[in-house]
Amino acid sequence: MDARLHNLEREIERARVALxxxxxxxxxxxxxxxxxxxxxxxxxxxxxxxxWLHALRTLGGVAAxxxxxxxxxxxxxxxxAETDALALVHDWTWALEASGAQMRDTLLDGWARGERPxxxxxxxxxxxxxxxxxxxxxxx
Amino acid sequence: MxxxxxxxxxxxxxxxxxxxxxxxxxxxxxxxxxLLLRLTGDRDAAxxxxxxxxxxVCRMIDEYQHDGRFESWLMRIAANLARDRARQRRRxxxxxxxxxxxxxxxxxxxxxxxxxxxPDEAVAAAEAGARLEAALAELSAPEREILVLRHYADLxxxxxxxxxxxxLGTALARAHRALGRLRELMRVVxx
Lengths: 140, 191
Prior knowledge:
The structure holds two protein chains of two kinds. Chain A is mostly helical. In chain A, 79% of the residues lie in helices and 0% in strands.
């Protein structure tokens, strides 16, 4: 602050301290009580909100850690036996479907006119696929 | 309340302990109300603004850096609320704002004339103090504002300048003029 302002402030203060003091003015007790109650309620609300925010942050952290853990667990290498079993089931269902499809075709379509299929061979093929499916089933 | 007790109370208030914040209301309500009543000239407004002041304290207590001047911080919040109210009233065309220049007066417009504390309201109604109150009531709103902020709220002129949004020199010049006018009025009141 420059000298001019400093001097002005000093002059003001000299005049001001010569004034009588201004006293506090008490509001009505009910007014103070109302203000106090409002402040206490607000403080409780802010504290509760603060706790919720803290809990949400904590839960969020735990949830993120859980998702990460599940994700990492999901990426782990599978056991060989588990892979073989799944492949086996896959082959078995295919074989069963193939034999079923063949049986259906034979029953529904029959042999084409004019054709002289080897009936025995057809039936043999049907039973072969069925046996194959049952064989696979035995190993499950 | 001694300094260490206040420090502890403020520490608890910063943790938003309801009892601590309630205790601050008990301790400072009269000081804040006295400022607001003198600035607004309206008892209802002063009561509402007093409550709002302490609610602001509750919400903003984290921002307060304790340097032994908690009361100044509190008074600045109250004064800002009074100024906001005056600005809103001006926007809605209501007379009697803090920023209006000109002599006080107007029947029924207590915001211009300034309040005269009733005996049952004043904590200390010394005769000299009553004369000062009467003279303050005759000042214009801006003159009264700057003197009340310095003489009653004990804000420094630097804090007042910042609050008013004016340079320090302007605040000092305004205070100097206001004091001169006040002394004339007090001579008149004495006669």
